[in-house]
Amino acid sequence: MSNILTLKEEAEKEAYQYFSEHIRPLIMKENGEVDLLKNVLWDNDADAFRHAYVSGVYTLEYDEKRAEWLGIIQEHIPGGGGSSPNSEASKNMDYWNNEVGRKYGSKAKSRQELAE
What we know:
mainly alpha
């Protein structure tokens, strides 16, 4: 079982990489990581994909119930989730995307399959 903090960071990087290569390009740093200062990554398609993918990875690594709780906790810990200071509408959108990720994560056999 993976460390939750490193798993989240790893899954976010994978989500942004896949998104940039297959959905629409994101501005990347020279090291290949997404440039968090030069992209809008909240309340849009990139945010939705990241939430769904990370929640799906949690489901693959743990199970749906743990993935659900991790998603809820992320929304309520300042600095722990991208949407902590956001409106209730943004949080609800994040919960929705997390649910979608758990649905696909419960069916996927790998992270690649999940991303696709």
